[in-house]
């Protein structure tokens, strides 16, 4: 495989993993940040925008999956693909953990 095949494998993993949160939030009717929200990455986009963003990620990720020739035969390409999945998943979990952690309420403040 050429070096650009590995880049395609990496981005295929990242894009395909990114489908999950946007698609789930979108079909659940929940608002969720997308690159189109204002302010970018902080504001919330509509469920429809999230579904469309998920579908775009799915199509582009699938194309890159084919371009990168991800297969179990080419172990390094498959490892890079899973590395892309791991990278975007860990980055997302860290980013959205900070978003969810507002001021903590003690037991006396709860309703």
What does this structure look like?
Helix content is 65%, strand content 0%. Helix 1 packs antiparallel against helix 2 (47-67). The chain has helices at residues 3-27, 47-67, 75-100. It has one domain. The mean pLDDT is 88. By secondary structure, it is mainly α. The relative contact order is 0.20. It is elongated and about 40 Å long.
What's the structural blueprint in terms of helices and strands?
Blueprint: H1 3-27, H2 47-67, H3 75-100
Helix pairs in contact: 1-2, 1-3
Properties at a glance:
single chain; 111 residues; mainly alpha; elongated
Helix content: 55-70%
> Average pLDDT value?
88
Please trace the helix and strand order, writing H or E for each element: HHH
How many distinct domains?
A: 1
Oligomer: single chain
Largest sheet: none
N- and C-termini, Cα separation: 59 Å
Strand content: under 5%
Radius of gyration: 17 Å
Give unreliable regions as ranges. none
> Which word captures the global form?
elongated
Number of helices in the DSSP assignment: 3
Structural class: mainly alpha
Strand tally is 0
């Amino acid at each position: 495989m050429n070096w650009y095949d590995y880049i395609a494998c990496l981005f295929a993993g990242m894009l395909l993993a990114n489908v999950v949160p946007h698609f789930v939030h979108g079909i659940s009717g929940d608002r969720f940040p997308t690159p189109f929200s204002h302010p970018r990455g902080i504001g919330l986009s509509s469920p429809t925008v999230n579904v469309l963003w998920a579908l775009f990620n799915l199509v582009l990720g699938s194309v890159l999956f084919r371009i990168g020739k991800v297969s179990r035969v080419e172990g390094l390409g498959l490892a890079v693909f899973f590395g892309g999945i791991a990278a975007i998943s860990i980055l997302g979990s860290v980013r959205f953990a900070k978003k969810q952690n507002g001021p903590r309420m003690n037991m006396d403040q709860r309703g």
